[in-house]
Amino acid sequence: MRASLVNQLRVLVPVKRTIDYAVKIRVASDGKGVDQNVQHSMNPFDEIAVEEAVRLRERNKEAVKKITAVTIGPAKAQDTLRTALAMGADDAIHVTHEGAIEPLAVSKILRAIVEKSKEDDEIGLVILGKQAIDDDASQTGQMLAGLLNWPQATFASKVELSGKGEKGDKVQVTREIDGGLAVVESQVPLIVTTDLRLNEPRYASLPNIMKAKKKPLKKFSIADLGLEKEVAARTETLKVADPPKRQGGSKVENVDELISKLKEKGAI
C-alpha cells in the first residue's frame, strides 16, 4: 500500500445497469434470454454500495478523498453512472461494451481500472454490491480480490474506517453469518461487498441531478484496456423458459388418503 492511501482514500464503486426490480420479467422471443426492452435502473445492491461510500466520506471527511463510480455496458449505462454521481460520487468511468458479460470478465476489467489508477490517483478501497439481481452470481467481488491479491470483506452489514492516529488506514466490517455477527478488520487496499441491511440509499435531489451532468465522466473501450480476449463468453445460454405454472392443490380427509394421492403422483 502506498503511503498516499492513508488519509487520502480513493474509493471505487462498480455499478451495474439491470432490469428494474419492479418489472415483470418476460422471456425474449428467441428463447435465449429475457426481454430487455423494459425499464432499467441501478442494481439495488450497487445503490447500497454508492450510499455507503458517500456515508464513509461524510463521517470521515479527511480520510476519503474521492469516490469514483464505474460501469461496463452500452451507451444507456451512462444513466446509471449519472445516478451514482447525483447520489454523491465525484467522477465516473464508463467502459463501453455491448451484450452480456460474465463475472470473471467484469473482474478483469475492474482490475485493469484499479491498476490504471496507479498512474494518477490510486484506488485504495473498492465497494460493490454482493450480487446483481439479474444473474445473482455473487462472484465479482471475490474474483476481483483474488486477481488483485487484496483482502476481502463480503456481505457487509456495517463498514467503519478505523486506525489509531492514522484514520482511514484500516477498515472494520461487520458481517452477518449463521447465528450471529462476525467483525473483521483489514488494512487497505480492500474489497468490500455490501448486504441489504447495510443502509438505505438516498434519493438523488433535483439540484444534485443537475450537478451530476457536469461531473467528469471518462470513457474507455475494452480495446483501450487491452482486454479484447478476456471478455469472450465462456458459457452459452441454450434456452430460457418460464417456470411451469403452479397447479391448484386439493384437500384430503386423512393420512391414508394423503399417502394414496402422493403415490398416484409418484412422489413416494
Automatic annotation (TrEMBL):
InterPro entries: ETF_a/b_N, ETF_b, ETF_beta_N, Rossmann-like_a/b/a_fold
GO cellular component: mitochondrial matrix
CC cofactor: AMP; FAD
GO process terms (BP): amino acid catabolic process; fatty acid beta-oxidation using acyl-CoA dehydrogenase
Localization, UniProt: Mitochondrion matrix
Main localization of the protein described in the UniProt heading: mitochondrion
Domain Electron transfer flavoprotein alpha/beta-subunit N-terminal: 30-229
Domain of life: Eukaryota
Cofactor detail note: Binds 1 AMP per subunit. Binds 1 FAD per dimer.
Keywords (A to Z) from UniProt: Electron transport, Mitochondrion, Transport
Pfam family, any one: ETF
Any one GO molecular-function label of the UniProt entry: electron transfer activity
Subunit (UniProt): Heterodimer of an alpha and a beta subunit.
Protein family: Belongs to the ETF beta-subunit/FixA family.
Record-linked PANTHER family: ELECTRON TRANSFER FLAVOPROTEIN BETA-SUBUNIT, ELECTRON TRANSFER FLAVOPROTEIN SUBUNIT BETA
Summary of the function given for this chain in its UniProt record: The electron transfer flavoprotein serves as a specific electron acceptor for several dehydrogenases, including five acyl-CoA dehydrogenases, glutaryl-CoA and sarcosine dehydrogenase. It transfers the electrons to the main mitochondrial respiratory chain via ETF-ubiquinone oxidoreductase (ETF dehydrogenase).
Protein name: Probable electron transfer flavoprotein subunit beta
Native organism: Malassezia cuniculi
Name of the gene encoding the protein in the UniProt record: CIR1
